[in-house]
Design brief:
Largest sheet: 4 strands, mixed
Number of strands: 4
Number of helices: 11
Shape: globular
Distance between the termini: 36 Å
Strand content: 5-15%
Order of helices and strands: EHEHEEHHHHHHHHH
Length: 292
């Protein structure tokens, strides 16, 4: 099954600060050994939430411990002071922000990667064992298409649609793109429980986190009419609701942390859509035991 009809054109993405990979061969340097590596992440951050969900789905609490970061970074540059020693040990005279998520090597005390897609792929590939095939054989291009779609036609479109100083025509075009993509996903999911296979995959994690952001962050900068049009995709939001009720997804949904992170970072004004919640996320995750 292919999601090619949903795939947008590619755009350049900012290069991550560190992009090492875990390999199978000891000669690779970062080879796979249980409890050698550690994750540092905040589940209030979209990339941190994606990694946390994948980590739980794979059952890696013992193989790769997690250090959870506060939702709001404590440094003026947007970094976490607790990560500063790792960054300085990994790059001589590092002067940038010490941001998460981070995959670190406890043996060397250095950073392996800050690139979320590589981190989740390496966790699944080298520590997944008999757990669900989050990256099924032959599905890589489909998963990459979903990642691009979520980044460009959902995340970026929602940001542009809610930018108050943008031209009205630009905001309207962005909202049209957002609604067009949501409509395509709505039609695609009719009769399906999951996005590309008959079980949960990384594509579902990617889309679910993006929908969480759309409702808990981006709608605050959209007018009520726009949010009501976004909410008018019942199959898509029922899909989001089912995943929220999944223990390995809902356990990491830190609604308070997302709100605090948003208010700390955002300089825009709230719009009428802030009052039009699409899903009652807390109700759908109420039965889930908190892992933090």
């Amino acid at each position: 099954m292919s999601v090619t009809p949903l795939a947008p054109a590619s755009t350049a993405q900012p290069a991550p600060v560190f992009r090492g990979r875990i390999g199978r061969d000891a000669r690779s340097g970062h080879y796979a050994v249980p409890r050698r590596y550690r994750l540092h992440l905040s589940t209030a951050c979209p990339d941190g939430l994606r990694i946390a969900v994948v980590h739980s789905l794979l059952g890696l609490d013992d193989a790769c411990p997690v250090t959870f970061l506060d939702a709001v970074p404590d440094c003026s540059d947007g970094g976490h002071s607790v990560l500063r020693p790792l960054y300085e040990a990994s790059a001589h005279r590092y002067r940038g922000a010490a941001t998460g998520p981070v995959l670190s090597d406890d043996w060397s005390g250095r950073i392996v990667s800050t690139h979320a897609p590589d981190i989740t792929r390496d966790l699944a590939r080298h520590f997944g064992g008999g757990r669900p095939a989050l990256y099924p054989c032959g599905a890589e291009s489909e998963i990459e298409a979903v990642e691009r779609l979520c980044a460009q036609d959902l995340e970026q479109a929602a940001q542009r649609a809610g930018t108050p100083d943008a031209e009205p025509a630009e905001r309207e075009a962005a909202l049209d793109k957002l609604l067009e993509t949501l409509g395509a996903l709505e039609r695609w999911l009719v009769g399906r429980d999951h996005l590309i296979r008959d079980h949960i995959t990384a594509a579902d994690v990617e889309l679910w986190v993006t929908l969480v952001q759309l409702d808990t962050v981006h709608r605050h900068h959209l007018d009520a009419s726009a949010v009501q049009r976004i909410a008018g995709h019942p199959t898509l939001w029922a899909y989001a609701r089912r995943l929220a009720a999944h223990t390995d997804c809902g356990a990491h949904l830190d609604l308070d942390g997302i709100a605090r992170r948003h208010h700390a970072r955002c300089r825009g004004l709230e719009a009428a859509g802030a009052a039009v919640q699409i899903l009652d996320w807390a109700a759908h995750t109420a039965h889930v035991v908190d892992r933090h």
